[in-house]
Inverse folding.
């Protein structure tokens, strides 16, 4: 079966256009929020903290701030796109189009990853202004940002299928993503924690997300890189298979 390149391009163009139509919400707001995090935790508080892992505290914190932004961007992009398509019946246009389920997945996830990469690029520029950016492994950085964005785009699709109201659409973000993100070591090193808390943190996948981006930026890692990559790739494959099966069954998208 041939890939429907025209259809995929149309999906990408539509989602990028939607992002640019509300640029204040989709691009400016994450950058402003990241800048505030960097200023408060990196400049104000970090100025009173000695260098950590051979780098200023602001450089240690910055990868976690960037991760928080790309997670929110990719999740919001995929979840809002599919949610509104469900309730405006726009999803029916895709269902009757010559799209395979894999192509549907690539269209939704790919456009969300593009938005996350745009946010990441703008935040990197912001970080340069604060002197917070170093990039020891650019290819590793692109891999981690893209893979993590794809994971949360897939989660956004699942939540958008499950949600029956806009309030439900926010439940997963508020009660799952936000707590696990802040408990995943984005603003601190697990060496600061008691042994029990540090052990519990190692069971939090968000710890490996943040650690992967941090290792690609400043070359410092607190987790086993192999385990981190295994978790990231494993989640990506598992969620991709799950979403494809949900599309095939037509769960919440077929009358």
């Amino acid at each position: 079966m041939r890939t429907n390149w025209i259809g995929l391009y149309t999906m990408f163009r539509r989602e990028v256009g939607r992002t640019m139509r509300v640029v204040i919400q989709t691009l400016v707001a994450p950058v402003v929020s990241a800048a505030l995090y960097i200023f408060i935790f990196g400049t104000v508080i970090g100025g009173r903290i000695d260098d950590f892992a051979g780098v200023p505290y602001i450089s240690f914190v910055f990868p976690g701030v960037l991760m928080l932004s790309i997670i929110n961007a990719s999740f919001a992009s995929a979840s809002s796109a599919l949610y509104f398509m469900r309730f405006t019946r726009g999803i029916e246009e895709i269902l009757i189009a010559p799209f395979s389920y894999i192509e549907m997945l690539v269209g939704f996830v790919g456009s969300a990853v593009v938005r996350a990469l745009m946010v990441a690029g703008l935040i990197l520029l912001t970080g340069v202004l604060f002197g917070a950016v170093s990039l020891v492994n650019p290819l590793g950085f692109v891999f981690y940002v893209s893979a993590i964005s794809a994971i949360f785009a897939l989660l956004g699709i699942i939540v958008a299928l499950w949600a029956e109201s806009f309030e439900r659409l926010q439940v997963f973000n508020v009660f799952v993503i936000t707590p696990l993100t802040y408990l995943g070591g984005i603003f601190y090193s697990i060496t600061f924690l008691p042994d029990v808390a540090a052990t519990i943190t190692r069971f939090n996948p968000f710890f490996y997300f943040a650690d992967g981006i941090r290792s690609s930026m400043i070359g410092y890692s607190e987790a086993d890189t192999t385990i981190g990559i295994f978790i990231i790739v494993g989640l990506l494959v598992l969620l991709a298979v799950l979403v494809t099966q949900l599309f095939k069954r037509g769960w919440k998208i077929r009358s």
About this structure: The mean pLDDT is 89.
